[in-house]
Specification:
Elements (H helix, E strand, L loop, with lengths): L11 E7 L2 E8 L5 E5 L12 H6 L3 E5 L16 H15 L4 E6 L3 H10 L4 E7 L20 H7 L3 H5 L4 H12 L9 H11 L6 H12 L1 H10 L6 E5 L3 H9 L7 E4 L7 H4 L1 H28 L1
Parallel strand pairs: 3-4, 3-5, 5-6, 6-7, 7-8
Antiparallel strand pairs: 1-2, 2-4
Helix pairs in contact: 2-3, 4-8, 6-7
């Protein structure tokens, strides 16, 4: 383990060579159905630092640093949500743990959707937290003329992330982004910011985010086609606070069945960091309901 890397008791750090890159991931828990946690921005696996032990009492938990994030290899300018989804598919194969409950939040919504659509046998259930989808409204998040975030376009522009954000990673992440979203320091404190800055502030540390945001602004037609041709068959749940309706609306367009919507009152955008206990309780219920739904479907198909 890198001596300056933050960790949590009971969590194991590993790396895997998959799909032409090297991904860093952590694991916890020895029993129960597997869960894969996928972070957003400006996050890494560290966003789940408190959530993981809470889930690990009942599940085998895996939390990954996506390509270009955290302690995974940096990404090149061809990086995209499609590549990140394929990385996850190969990681699940490498770990020999599939199918898994997949949880994605924020900008990773498109990644976990692609994984479930293109590799459905990898996924028991899909849970999207405060996430959108290109082609179903996510592009509006970058429209500064209607309240969108200016930094999305800046990150998506080739080469700009390195120029604008790497050297000022602490100011951008700690002094601007988390305060901008109203995240209390009790949820994301100075030590947490230091951990994020450690990886985002490296050379090409924003490369993963740049790739996902480029995709968010360009892959709308592709995701709409994917939704039409390969609607999700797995149980889908959306969890939201400020973006509850936005998340539910997006994922309702890409599944063949009803989407369960859970609205968490009084919670900010970064749910896993702001209310990990509430989220853990909610996810355990979601996973249990999904498992029952899958079992019932199997029985109906068997006897039908």
């Amino acid at each position: 383990m890198k001596p300056d890397r933050a960790t949590v008791a009971g969590i194991r750090h590993s790396t895997a060579a998959v799909n032409g890159t090297r991904l860093h991931y952590v694991t916890a828990g020895e029993q129960g159905t597997p869960v894969l946690l996928v972070h957003g921005f400006p996050e890494t696996w560290w966003a789940f630092r408190t959530l993981i032990p809470l889930l690990a009492s009942r599940h085998r938990v895996y939390a990954v640093d996506l390509r270009g994030f955290g302690d995974s290899d940096v990404a090149d300018e061809n990086s995209s949500g499609a590549i990140a989804a394929e990385d996850l598919h190969v990681l699940i194969e490498h770990l020999s743990v599939g199918p898994v409950h997949v949880v994605g939040q924020d900008v990773s919504g498109g990644v976990v959707y692609r994984l479930a659509a293109t590799h459905p046998t990898d996924v028991i259930s899909l849970t999207a937290i405060e996430a959108g989808l290109a082609g179903f409204g996510a592009e509006r998040l970058a429209d500064v003329t209607h309240g969108g975030a200016w930094y999305i376009g800046a990150l998506a522009a080739p080469g700009i992330a390195g120029l604008l954000f790497e050297k000022g990673a602490r100011a951008f992440i700690g002094d601007y982004l988390y305060p901008f979203y109203g995240v209390p320091t009790a949820a994301v404190g100075p030590d947490d910011i230091t951990e994020y800055v450690r990886s985002y502030g490296r050379a090409s540390g924003f490369s993963g985010a740049a790739g996902l945001y480029r995709g968010m602004l360009s892959e709308g037609p592709e995701l709409r086609s994917l939704a039409q041709n390969l609607p999700l068959q797995v149980p889908v749940t959306t969890i939201g606070s400020r973006g509850a309706g936005f998340t539910h609306g997006a994922f309702s367009h890409v599944t063949a069945q009803d989407v369960t919507s859970i609205h968490l009152e009084g919670v900010g955008h970064y749910v896993a960091q702001e209310e990990p206990q509430l989220l853990a309780h909610t996810l355990i219920q979601v996973f249990g309901a999904a498992a029952r739904q899958v079992q019932l479907s199997r029985e109906i198909n068997h006897f039908g």
